[in-house]
Structure formats: structure tokens, C-alpha cells
Design brief:
Elements (H helix, E strand, L loop, with lengths): L1 H17 E6 L4 H4 L7 E8 L1 H10 L5 E9 L2 E2 L11 E2 L3 E2 L11 E3 L6 E2 L12 E2 L7 E2 L11 E4 L5 E2 L12 E4 L5 E3 L12 E4 L3 E4 L12 E4 L7 E2 L22 E2 L11 E3 L6 E2 L12 E3 L6 E2 L21 E2 L11 E4 L5 E2 L12 E4 L6 E2 L13 E3 L5 H6 L7 E3 L18 H11 L7 H4 L9 H11 L18 E3 L3 E2 L5 E9 L6 E7 L4 E8 L7 E8 L2 E7 L10 E9 L7 E11 L5 E4 L2 E6 L16 E6 L4 E7 L10 E5 L2 E5 L1
Length: about 675
């Protein structure tokens, strides 16, 4: 019985030892605690830095601490630093590193607390519940880094936050900061807080510091409880967030958006008002959902990498005073129309590389801007018209990189290469040159010297010819002037990956033509390998060129005319690769034919069906079911009329036909 009573006493004693309440005088906490394995501690009275040192060094099992009845007094000892080589510890302050890495889950701080020292609670990865005293005015660097706080409502009296104060708190979801006095959100304050979804800022928050919310990958909304009075957004401040709705026009005090500030964010548009005087390097770098960007018209710089990898498609530099376009500034953007103002004097390395959607380009700069390396890398410059000031035409034409565009000017002489002065460049300008050179006409002599060498020679024909093929310094712009009854014909065909097929293009014409051009657009997986003319064009020159990806232009011309009015004109060798899936169409368009009289004919477009041998089943003609049938090609054009069924396809080229209402493949 005595042994049992002794055991009970020991158990009660042990249980009581886990929770302890003490009244402390400065520096005497260690003398009041005999069992350092306590898990809960309530302190009243006064404490100084020596008491916090004892907690940090000895009370490893502590999980709950209540300091609400404590007054923290100052302490200094210049002979023996306690925390981080510090020797002076102010009153009403939690010392540096006081609870660093502790297992505490809950702490109640003194009501009169004014400051929390550097990393005081850093690494307390079980600290979930926390209430800030209302009188708190300063939180030092990394004070709560890597804790488990899930919501933060910062007291209004807080004036100072230290770098990384709440960084790497992966449980934190909501943040509200509404100080009573002007305050800066410092460097890395919430960096790595991956669960934050929204932040509410009061009107006295005047700056978002470098990396403040970097890596807060779920942060979607920055809200303002009053006016937006932000003056600066620091480097990488919102990098990698989901922020999409920041309204720059409402940020009337904002002057600086620093480097990479919104990089890789979800921002969808940005209109920069005049109060913003600087937008830094890569500020919207690979913000892939950014579709429009309107710079401050007074800004003189489009910074390096500013819009690289975005979806911006508007004319970003039009009506601005930009002088400098930085390295990779517009890299891989889908801009189709771009106007650079007359203030531009430099465009940096690969500034417009990868802008494959660019279709119209204007430079208003009279002095040709200097260029970095490979400014338009990957852009098919030879197909893009570049409009320049009239007096600067020669300078652009001879300038490295610039000269690869189709350079033109519309004043005062009009469109470059437009010999007959009808406002456009077509095959009719070649016919006009032929008439002049052959002595058949003296019209348009003043514009016949297309290449500006002082003479009218066959070299001028070559210049216009190259314009139409997309190889010259001026744009080919085509205008049809006469709707023709003439037609092109081509039979559908089948082709396998890795194989070639010669597509015969026939022409049925009423008039005789001296020049002709047409564009052929091929489906994915098909390319043109070779084009040859037949005896119908034996006296004509021919050329072809891929003027844009998947689109070829063919041009034939001569001093004489085509032979005859019917039959094959062109043999086009088509190659197929593994990406061709079949059951598609080759489109022949922009068909222009020019008579010797310079009358230009527009001929209707033609679609040629093309498939694979696995895409359509062969249909054999049943010879027993004979009788007259009509034969059509896949364009619906009648090829043969009232022929015997068993002879319907005899002698036809390889392709797909409709015979008696049924699809038939001729191999």
C-alpha cells in the first residue's frame, strides 16, 4: 500500500511539473524553474534578455508560453553577448533569435510589447496561433520566417517590417496590411509564401519592395482598402505570382516598376500612365497572358526583355517618344503591325527576334537607327514591307539588317516598282517594261528605271520580278482589275509520306497572256520541290519562291504570249513528309494574267483535293454495269461527257474523280 501511494505522489508531482506559473524578476527565471522538461509556462512580473536566453537554451520541450503579464526591461552587458553578438537589449522587445526553431505552438506576448527582434520566431514550424499586441510598431528581419501562421492581420501601429519578416510561410493564405503611418513592405517580406491567394493593402503602404511576394505562386489578387498610393514596385516583387488585375492607371503615385517586377505573372494588360517614369528590365518577362501593353508616351526606353515571351499584339511603340529599344525587348511577341517613332536611335540584340507574325513595319526615323546583333532573328524579313521616310530610302536600303526588308516609301513617287502608276505592283508592270524595251511604247518612261541606275534595261524587269517573288526591297501588292472567264484546272491526287507527285496545272484561256502570277498554299506536310513549264510556255521565263511559310508564288513572263488556249501550263512536283495526314486541299489563289495590251485578268481561285492512299478506299468500275456516264474532277468541273463507263478513266492523270456519281481513284 505504501508503494502504491508513493507512485501516485510521484505521478502527480511529474504531471504538475509539465505546466508551470512563475513570477519573475529580471534575470532570475532560471532559478525559478527546476524541471526544464516543462511544456507550458506562464510568466508574470519582469523579464530581460537573460531570461529569454535561458528559455532558448534550456526549455526545449516548451510548446505553450504566456507572457501577457510580463514587462520586458532593458539589459546591457558589453562583456558577454547573449544573442547574435548583441550586447544591448531594449525594453519592451523580444530579443533576436529568442525562440528560434522552438516547438512552441502558441504564444501570448506582453500587451505593451513594441518590437520583435530578428528571427525571433523563425523556424517555429508548429506556431499556428498568434496574436499581435496592438502597440507593436516594429517587426525585424525574418522574425516569423518558416512558421505555420495561416492568416496575418498586421496591427495598424506597425511602422517597420524587416526583410523576409514573413517569408516561406507555406500555410499563410490571407494578408492584410493597413498601417496608420506610411510603411514599406520590405525585401522578401512574403517571398516563398506559396499559399497566399490575396493581399489587402491600406492607403499608407507606399512601396512594395524587392522580391516582396516572389514565388507566392497562388497570389491572384492585390486589393486596396483605400487609395492606391504605391510609389514603387521593387525588383522581382511579384515574380511568378498569379496577379492578373493590377491597375496601373489607378496607381497615381507610382513612379517606378523595377526589373522583373511582374515577370511570369498572370497580368493580362498594362497601360502605363505618365506618372510612371521607369519600367525596368524584364518587368513583364514571360507574363504569357499579357495581351496589351501601352507605354507612357513620354518614356524614352523599352527596356531589355520587357515584353519577351508575352502575348502582346498591339502596336506598342506607335505615338511614343521611345529612343532605345532594348535587348530581346519584344522577343517572340505576336505583334503584326509595328511603328517605331522618329525618336528611335537604337534597337538592341535580338530585340524583335521570333516575331513571326509581323506583317507591316514602319520606321519613322529619318536617321537609320543603330542595331545590335540579329535584331530580327527568325523573322522572314524578305516578305515584310518596311515603310521608311522618302529621303531615307537609300540609307535603309544599304544598311545592314534593315536592307533585308521589302523597303518602300509612298512619297513622292508612289509605290516602288509601280511602273505603270496604277498604285500597285503586279505582273502588268513587267509587261509595261517589255513594251518600253521593245520600242512598242513610250508611256511611263519616268518610272521605268525601277532600280535607279540611270538606264532602262532588263535589270529593271528583274527588279520588279524580284519584288513579286518577295526577294526585293519593296512590297509586292497585287490588285485584280478584270474578272476573267478563263480558268486553271488541276486534278485531285493521292500521295504517301516520303513520296512525290507531279501535279499538272492546266489553263483554259480566251485571251493570250504575256505574263502570269499565282500563289499556291500547301497543307501541312506538303511542299513544292520543283516547278517547270510545258511547251505552252516554252518561250517564257519562270520563277517560283516560298514567299511565306507554306505559300509559294509562281511567276512566268515573256515578250511573247502563251501557246494555244488549252492544255497543261505547269508541272509542279509536290513532296509529302510524315506530318501530312491527307484529306485536305491545295489552294491556288491570287491568279493574275496580263495581256500584251496590259489588260490584267483576275482568274478564280482553285482548290485541289489531295489525300493519302489509306484515307480513301479504291472504287473499281464494274464493267458489267456499262453505259454513258459523265466524269468530273474534284473541283466539280466536267472532264468527259457521255462516255462508256469502262472507258471513263482511260488516259486520265493520277487523281480522284467522280464517275457516274461515284468516287474513283486513278493511280
Amino acid at each position: 500500500m505504501k508503494k502504491l501511494l508513493l507512485s501516485v505522489v510521484l505521478m502527480v508531482s511529474a504531471t504538475m511539473s509539465w505546466a508551470l506559473e512563475v513570477e519573475c524578476t529580471p534575470g532570475n527565471l532560471a532559478s525559478l524553474i527546476q524541471n526544464t522538461n516543462i511544456t507550458s509556462l506562464t510568466v508574470t512580473g519582469q523579464m530581460d534578455a537573460r531570461d529569454f536566453k535561458f528559455i532558448a537554451s534550456e526549455l526545449d520541450a516548451l510548446t505553450t508560453i504566456n507572457l501577457s503579464g510580463v514587462t520586458i526591461v532593458s539589459y546591457s552587458d558589453h562583456t558577454k553577448p547573449l544573442f547574435n553578438n548583441e550586447v544591448d537589449y531594449p525594453e519592451k522587445s523580444i530579443p533576436t533569435l529568442a525562440f528560434f526553431g522552438k516547438k512552441i505552438t502558441q504564444i501570448t506576448l506582453p500587451a505593451n510589447l513594441h518590437s520583435i527582434g530578428m528571427a525571433a520566431f523563425a523556424g517555429c514550424n508548429q506556431l499556428v496561433n498568434f496574436t499581435f499586441p496592438e502597440n507593436l510598431d516594429s517587426i525585424a528581419a525574418y522574425a516569423f520566417s518558416a512558421t505555420k501562421i495561416n492568416q496575418l492581420n498586421l496591427p495598424q501601429n506597425v511602422r517597420v517590417l524587416g526583410e523576409g519578416a514573413f517569408s516561406n510561410i507555406t500555410s499563410l493564405t490571407q494578408v492584410s496590411i493597413s498601417p496608420a503611418a506610411p510603411m514599406t513592405i520590405p525585401k522578401s517580406a512574403f517571398e516563398g509564401c506559396t499559399s497566399i491567394t490575396s493581399v489587402t493593402l491600406g492607403p499608407n503602404v507606399i512601396e512594395i519592395g524587392d522580391r516582396a511576394f516572389k514565388g507566392a505562386t497562388n497570389l491572384a489578387n492585390i486589393l486596396f482598402s483605400g487609395n492606391n498610393n504605391i510609389q514603387s514596385i521593387g525588383k522581382e516583387a511579384l515574380l511568378g505570382t498569379k496577379v492578373s488585375n493590377f491597375n496601373f492607371q489607378q496607381a497615381t503615385t507610382l513612379t517606378n516598376i523595377d526589373d522583373w517586377a511582374f515577370a511570369q505573372s498572370k497580368q493580362v494588360s498594362a497601360t502605363i500612365p505618365t506618372n510612371i517614369t521607369r519600367v525596368g528590365k524584364g518587368a513583364f518577362y514571360y507574363a504569357a497572358e499579357l495581351t496589351s501593353y501601352f507605354p507612357n508616351a513620354a518614356s524614352d526606353t523599352i527596356a531589355d526583355l520587357l515584353l519577351a515571351g508575352t502575348a502582346v499584339s498591339n502596336n506598342v511603340t506607335d505615338k511614343t517618344h521611345v529612343q532605345h529599344i532594348g535587348r530581346y525587348a519584344l522577343y517572340n511577341t505576336p505583334i503584326e503591325t509595328l511603328t517605331i517613332p522618329n525618336t528611335v536611335n537604337y534597337i538592341g540584340d535580338r530585340a524583335m527576334a521570333g516575331m513571326i507574325d509581323l506583317k507591316e513595319f514602319t520606321s519613322e526615323a529619318i536617321e537609320v537607327p543603330d542595331l545590335g546583333e540579329e535584331v530580327w532573328l527568325g523573322v522572314k524579313q524578305a516578305t515584310i514591307p518596311l515603310k521608311v521616310p522618302f529621303d531615307s530610302y537609300d540609307a535603309y536600303s544599304s544598311a545592314d539588317q534593315w536592307s533585308r526588308f521589302l523597303i518602300w516609301t509612298d512619297e513622292p513617287q508612289g509605290v516602288f516598282g509601280d511602273v505603270n502608276q496604277d498604285g500597285v505592283v503586279t505582273a502588268s508592270d513587267i509587261t509595261c517594261l517589255y513594251d518600253i524595251l521593245l520600242g512598242n511604247s513610250t508611256n511611263f518612261m519616268e518610272t521605268a528605271d525601277v532600280n535607279g541606275d540611270g538606264e532602262i534595261t532588263v535589270a529593271d524587269i528583274t527588279t520588279v520580278y524580284n519584288i513579286l517573288l518577295g526577294n526585293s526591297k519593296a512590297p509586292g501588292r497585287n490588285k485584280k482589275t478584270f474578272n476573267s472567264n478563263d480558268m486553271l484546272l488541276a486534278d485531285g491526287f493521292v500521295i504517301e509520306a516520303g513520296k512525290s507527285h507531279v501535279m499538272d496545272v492546266e489553263m483554259r484561256n480566251t485571251a493570250q497572256f504575256a505574263a502570269m502570277q499565282l500563289d499556291i498554299t500547301m497543307p501541312q506536310g506538303l511542299t513544292i520541290d520543283k516547278v517547270t513549264t510545258t511547251s505552252r510556255a516554252s518561250n517564257m521565263a519562270m520563277g517560283f519562291n516560298e514567299i511565306e511559310p507554306g505559300k509559294w508564288r509562281i511567276l512566268i513572263h515573256s515578250a511573247t504570249t502563251t501557246n494555244g488556249n488549252e492544255g497543261t501550263l505547269l508541272n509542279i512536283t509536290v513532296n509529302a513528309d510524315d506530318s501530312f495526314t491527307g484529306n485536305d486541299y491545295i489552294n491556288i489563289s491570287n491568279i493574275i494574267a496580263v495581256e500584251p495590251s496590259e489588260l490584267t485578268h483576275e482568274i478564280g481561285d482553285l482548290d485541289v483535293e489531295v489525300g493519302t492512299t489509306t484515307g480513301v478506299k479504291d472504287i473499281n468500275i464494274d464493267n458489267a454495269d456499262n453505259g454513258p456516264v459523265n466524269v468530273y474532277n474534284m473541283n466539280g468541273q466536267l472532264i468527259r461527257q457521255n462516255v462508256e463507263r469502262n472507258e471513263a478513266t482511260t488516259g486520265l492523270h493520277s487523281g480522284i474523280y467522280i464517275v457516274g456519281g461515284k468516287k474513283v481513284i486513278v493511280k
